[in-house]
UniProtKB/TrEMBL annotation:
Keywords: DNA-binding, Transcription, Transcription regulation. This is ArsR family transcriptional regulator. It comes from Humibacillus xanthopallidus. GO terms for molecular function: DNA binding; DNA-binding transcription factor activity. InterPro entries: ArsR-like_HTH, ArsR_HTH, HTH_ArsR_DNA-bd_dom, HTH_MetalResp_TranReg, WH-like_DNA-bd_sf, WH_DNA-bd_sf.
Length: 117
């Protein structure tokens, strides 16, 4: 599942006259589901460990070969978690020889920060 764009424009809801409150701002359902899927991709301790390794690495990229020994799971499980992060658009993947390199997608991280703020 690929999450392509996140809207930063909330939906304006009608005035709630019964309570006398001001109009409220809410996400439409589709946008809420996109954001929830993105947050779900982040909501795993191993994925957060992998992101921290990549974030702390030079150029904010790391080889899968360097990450498999840093987390307490098997290499296939590391690959599964990295694929989830790539599918969510949080990481990009580049093949260099026999190894896969992963880089943080700065624009996607900015979008996440924007809707969490």
């Amino acid at each position: 599942m690929s999450i392509t764009t996140l809207s930063t424009t909330p939906q304006q809801l009608p005035r709630v006259d019964d309570c006398g409150s001001s109009p409220v701002v809410a996400l439409d359902r589709e946008e809420a589901e996109r954001r929830a899927a993105l947050l779900k991709a982040l909501a795993d301790p191993v994925r957060l460990q992998l992101l921290s390794i990549i974030s702390a690495s030079p150029n904010r990229e790391a080889c899968v070969c360097d990450m498999t020994e840093a987390v307490p799971v098997s290499q296939p499980t590391v690959s599964h978690h990295l694929k989830t992060l790539v599918d969510a658009g949080i990481l990009t993947r580049e093949r260099r020889g026999t190894w896969a390199w992963f880089r943080l997608d700065a624009a996607r991280l900015d979008a996440i920060r924007g809707f969490l703020a």
